[in-house]
């Protein structure tokens, strides 16, 4: 398994270096900034500025085209175990509250992303949530998931197909309301109702 690296330190020998640099720029210039179509003030992803400030963002490249959604799921489970670390710490980061891991799949074609990225995210979301994590799908399709504040905006568009994981926070509730197990996991972790502001 390729080892994750800090987002601000792309290794010189990394696979698909152009895709990696593109994702670094996308995180800084898109996710961490406001967008006119978002429908609310603040950055596209409120989690990202804090993670950048704490140098908590990590990335890793899966260099080959996955053989099927099962391989994507297996890869993400392996990196989830790495991300969980021990004692609530992420290797090289520490406090998981400020950490996120982007798993890039640059060998996927545009026709692949629905089964590989969207399909894996659907397969993994509940088990991740039950472990206190969120997993998100990003690609140039873009994913059909609309923004919370502007239903015509697709905030999960990215120039490189990837899946991202981070610690679940209280304001993730709107992303979990449609699934009883996910909703129960959120309530078990955070208590009663809360309001979300992401997307």
Characterization of the model:
The protein has 199 residues and is α+β, with helices and mostly antiparallel strands. It has one domain (5-169). It has five helices and seven strands. The chain has a five-stranded mixed sheet with strand order 1-2-5-7-6. A hairpin with a 3-residue loop joins strand 3 (89-90) and strand 4. Helix 3 (69-84) packs parallel to helix 4. Residues 194-199 have low confidence and may be disordered.
Tag the structure with descriptive keywords.
single chain, 199 residues, two-stranded antiparallel sheet, 7 strands, disordered C terminus
Give me the secondary-structure topology.
Elements lengths: L4 E2 L10 H15 L15 H7 L3 E5 L7 H16 L4 E2 L3 E2 L4 E5 L8 H17 L3 E6 L23 E6 L12 H11 L9
Parallel strand pairs: 2-5
Antiparallel strand pairs: 1-2, 3-4, 5-7, 6-7
Helix pairs in contact: 3-4
Q: Give the count of helical stretches.
A: 5
How many strands in all? Answer: 7
- Which residues sit in consecutive blocks of at least 5 with pLDDT less than 50? 194-199
Shape: globular
Alpha-carbon Rg, integer:
16 Å
Strands of the biggest beta sheet: in what spatial order?
A: 1-2-5-7-6
- Kindly report the average pLDDT value: 93
Distance between the termini: 31 Å
SSE topology string:
EHHEHEEEHEEH
Q: Fraction of residues in helices? A: 25-40%
Structural class estimated from helices and strands: alpha+beta
Proportion of beta-strand residues: 5-15%
Return the domain count: 1
- Largest beta-sheet characterization: 5 strands, mixed
